[in-house]
Amino acid sequence: MKRITSFFLLLMMIIGCNQQIEQTNPLLMEFDSPHGVPPFDQIRASHFEPAFESAIQEYQREIQRIATSAEASTFTNTIEAIEYSGELLNQVESVFYNIKLSHTNDTLRELAKEIGPRLSQVYDQVYLNDSLFARVKKVYDNTTSQDLDGEQFRLLNETYKKFIRKGALLAGENKTRLKEINQRLAKLEETFADNLLNETNNFSMVIKDESNLSGLPLSLRSAAKEKAESMEMSNSWVFTLQKPSMIPFLQYADNRELRKEIYTAYINRGNNNNEYDNKDIAKEMVNLRLERANLLGFESHAHYVLDDNVAKTPENVYKFMDQLMTRAVPVAKNEAQRQQEMIEAEGKNYKLQPWDWWYYTEKIRQKKYDLNEKELRSYFQLANVRDGAFMVINKLWGLQFEPRDDISVYHEDVEVYEVLDSDKKHVGILYMDFFPRESKRGGAWMSSFRKQYVINDEYHTPIVTNNFNFTPPSGKTPSLISLDEVKTLFHELGHGLHGLLSNCQYKSLSGTSVSRDFVEFPSQIMENWATEPTVMKDYAIHFKTGETIPDELIEKMAETNLFNQGFITTEYMAASYLDMDLHSITAPLEDDIMAFEDQSLINCGLIPEIEARYRIPYFAHIFASGYSAGYYSYIWSEIMVADAYQEFKEKGLFNQEVAQSFKENILSRGGTKDPMKLYIQFKGSEPSVRPLLESRGLLTD
Predict the structure, then answer these.
(1) What topology is assigned to 27-169 in CATH?
(2) Which listed residue, 16, 489, 504, 567, has the most CB atoms within 10 A of its CB?
(3) Is the CB of residue 503 less than 8 Å from the CB of residue 475?
(4) 3-class DSSP state of 445
(5) 190: helix, coil or strand?
(6) Is 492 a catalytic residue?
(7) What is the pTM of this model?
(8) What's the distance, Cα to Cα, between the start and end of the chain in Å?
(9) Integer CA distances (angstroms), 311 to 305, 665, 691, in order
(10) Cβ(151)–Cβ(506) under 8 Å?
């Protein structure tokens, strides 16, 4: 009797402890904050682990109720019930992973390695639940007897398809093996990302001899000096592998050996045979993805991925890529030849190498077009560019961006805006995180803390985040960004609009919940406004003189639109080929993965003076960000971008009829309809590839 009593006392203590955790853990409560944003000032790293456990248990109970219901399966009690389950887990996940990407620490990184496989297991328990799938299938098989609207019909089809693609038709050992693969891949993905962050942060190029700074602009020198001082190094300049530090160094540093040093360190990240090496991880992931695809009835991982994309098959992707690469390689060869001629004209006897490309490209740009990127940066003060992008969005769709200083943030650099429509009605919240730091991954991206959806007639507005790694301010000099960074800001705001202007019933279909080769369309089309002369006149203001960018400089920029396109296209395409080659294999990869990479780059025709944009050990897009067999999607989307932007050019950059059609048919519809059908609703026909070839200077006939 004592043992039983002790057991129940212990059980009651555990239950009481869990209740206390739930009452005090901000992640497990409804956020009592403006518009339900995460209360970052209350959230601690220690909150996440217990929050995940509680949220997972709640989700499992919800799924169990649906799967074991005695009621006959209906759209409402099965499909919608699945859709609306896991709200708490989604809340915890979105906060955790967004903070981990933007401002991580050791606690979060270690938890991610544990929680990734755990979540994989949880979701496998859902999609491999025979009873639950039987209910889904019953609704799916009786579609014609149900009165569903278009979005409901889409949700039903997408839900059924997701169960199939997640392995619901598998049985026995195959189902067990699929679970093992998913959990292993989740762990490997986190390890790959962690290794890359460590490799990036662990490199510093310290310069003590000021003569080695020859050619570098003052702003870059100042930033390097500040970095050295933050590391308690006197009389030194420190350069890192963060792009705002590395790229300008490659462009301007006269010291060739130092250019080689920093460039080599960059392209060898994850390939140094140390504790952060990613080669074996990448190889294992490629082979596991193939095995999973085979289990699910697909010839390769690429076949599996593309079956759910606009492109549909690897053959279609390769055909498209070949069309671009065969036109771009001769252009790249001509660019390399011009650079080699400049090297020889300077009396030097070395052969052009990849670490020379940025340096001589910048020299040729200045010589041929009298255009200096340092001069351009002076007109691109980050705050002005941001406001210029907001202005464009306001003219197109009437949105207003009001700063909200009363909303807590996860880092002091983050800016928060409430987005309002033309009637001052709340649309959503936008976080903007501009600058690099050691706790933040590289690159630029958009994500959501909450997606837009409707439940019980209550409209939940989106909470969107845009992240960048722009050149930070230095001393009294504000953040001055490059033209590429200007386009990146417009690009990510395009993704942001896709989330903010979503008007869908269901979360799984809202915002950016579209195929990989369609999601870049709304973001890339926004880049076009960034360089329109009338737009630049509004935001490109010299940070010292207050002078508006002169017409002469805008004209020079227009003249350089096709400059360096051979390099830009081939380095990107080489990475796309590498991704497709890795994921189109039909037998496990047994050879050295870097030898595989070498052969892939030879096969696609990349010239030796150019490296692929990403090498396997740091190709985070495909090994840590969900773009496997999908990196091609950026340029695939450009087909639609170039074709669609003609509509604005012909009818007016801010034509309200075209803008509203784009909003109603693209930005607000999410994944509620087949992407190509949405495009045709907007444009009236499928896109032509010709405008893309023209925009890149690759049309020779």
Answers:
(1) Glutathione S-transferase Yfyf (Class Pi); Chain A, domain 2 (1.20.1050)
(2) 489
(3) no
(4) strand
(5) helix
(6) yes
(7) 0.93
(8) 92
(9) 10, 20, 19
(10) yes
